[in-house]
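Design job #97: recover the sequence.
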């Protein structure tokens, strides 16, 4: 096909998506693809939700856009109220943007401005974790700890410290429980804060369940609580990036609620608009908002499309569906089913080392040798092969290489729509099994 699109890759051609039907996408040739990863953990309500579509039709006839420099809008106000109703304690304000990277970017800038407002101008450093992903804009990319994604842009990135991830499967020692392991790696944050000088550190950023770059790796019990204590001890803001794991994906509207931790800021996107509109949000504590209000009264940031009425309408309709149909309970039930189906299929598989995740956010990690956990040679490109085989079999999933250190390791991330049926879970796991077998045989 002759195309003027500057796509993600210059190689090959892609099928044209023309329609959605529940958990399936349909291309121009009529082929159906089961969306086992919601694209990249986006399409939590599937691709043809009637209520969200109706809400958008209604809003476009009423008001599409009014610039937030001049107006607020009913959909934006309602969305902020509802998010705050459900948010962890202390979170009180919502800054609406258009995606995940924008939300993370806003969080980093707000952290900096907050410390200027309260008279701590030396606080400028961000600490994050290796193998995390926080977005592709320069600030978010600097925070991210995936070596491969950062490498070629390194000269453009702000200096950031990266401590160990919380990666139970690979990094917990034989003499540690998950809890003692979690305390050990959380304590790396304190060591790094002290090394840099606490008066220079403004924020620690982490995904409660690491998504794209590690394959649904949840924090072990107690880890985030210890992180919270360390941040409090040193006056460092805790920013939890729930762009992928938030908005119900783990069975909780905010993933950190399961960990019993309230951060100072939370970033969300993806499932917030469920793919019906591009939208993200930065949620922040009243303490941060009040500091700006008592100071300059103006967050020196902004984007043209922030608070867009159509985007906020989609998010309101998504929340209506999630909360009104109790889809969080469904995520927990279907998440357990998916986990059980993955364990039945791959529990004894010689090349599946780990099956993990929460709710409908699951990952499997592939290994050359289960005993030693040795990964496959990266030159083999196993994840890319699995993606190709799965797509050929009519399954969309999200395999990625570099699981361990940005170069070695392979995983497959699964994040199907919350509406997935039992038979579709079987279809997903069956097709994934075929794809893995095909990729390993190649
Ligand atoms: C945890 C996390 N943060 C931020 C982002 C960036 O979001 P976006 O691609 O919407 O800019 C992503 C995207 O995958 C993500 O998984």
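Job complete. Output follows.
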């Amino acid at each position: 096909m002759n195309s003027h699109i500057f796509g993600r890759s210059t190689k090959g051609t892609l099928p044209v998506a023309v329609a959605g039907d529940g958990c399936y996408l349909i291309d121009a040739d009529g082929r159906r693809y089961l969306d086992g990863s919601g694209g990249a953990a986006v399409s939590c309500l599937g691709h043809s939700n009637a209520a969200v579509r109706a809400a958008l039709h209604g809003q476009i006839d009423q008001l599409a856009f009014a610039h937030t420099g001049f107006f607020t809008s009913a959909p934006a106000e309602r969305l902020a109220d509802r998010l705050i109703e459900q948010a962890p304690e202390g979170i009180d304000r919502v800054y609406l943007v258009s995606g995940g990277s924008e939300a993370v970017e806003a969080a980093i800038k707000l952290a900096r401005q907050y410390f200027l407002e309260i008279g701590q101008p030396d606080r400028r450093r961000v600490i994050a974790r290796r193998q995390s992903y926080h977005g592709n804009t320069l600030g978010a990319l600097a925070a991210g700890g995936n070596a491969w994604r950062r490498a070629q842009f390194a000269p453009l990135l702000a200096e950031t410290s990266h401590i160990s991830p919380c990666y139970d499967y690979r990094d917990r020692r034989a003499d540690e429980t998950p809890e003692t392991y979690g305390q050990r790696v959380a304590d790396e944050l304190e060591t790094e804060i002290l090394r840099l000088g606490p008066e220079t550190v403004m924020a620690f950023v982490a995904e409660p369940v690491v998504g794209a770059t590690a394959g649904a790796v949840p924090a072990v019990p107690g880890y985030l609580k210890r992180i919270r204590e360390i941040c409090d001890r040193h006056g460092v803001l805790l920013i939890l990036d729930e762009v992928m794991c938030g908005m119900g994906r783990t069975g909780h509207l905010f993933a950190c609620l399961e960990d019993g931790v309230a951060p100072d800021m939370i970033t969300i996107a993806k499932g917030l608009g469920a793919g019906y509109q591009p939208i993200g949000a930065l949620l922040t504590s009243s303490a941060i908002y009040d500091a700006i209000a008592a100071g300059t009264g103006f967050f020196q940031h902004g984007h043209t499309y922030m608070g867009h009425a159509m985007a906020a309408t989609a998010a309101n309709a998504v929340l209506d569906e999630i909360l009104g149909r109790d889809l969080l309970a469904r995520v927990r039930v279907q998440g357990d089913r998916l986990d059980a189906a993955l364990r039945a299929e791959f529990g004894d598989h010689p090349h599946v080392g780990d099956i993990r995740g929460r709710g409908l956010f699951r990952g499997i990690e592939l290994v050359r040798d289960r005993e030693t956990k040795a990964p496959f040679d990266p030159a083999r490109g196993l994840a890319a092969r699995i993606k190709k085989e799965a797509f050929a079999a009519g399954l969309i999933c999200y395999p990625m290489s570099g699981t361990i250190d940005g170069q070695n390791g392979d995983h497959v991330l699964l994040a199907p729509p919350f509406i997935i049926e039992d038979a579709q879970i079987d279809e997903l796991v069956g097709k994934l099994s075929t794809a893995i077998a095909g990729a390993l045989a190649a």
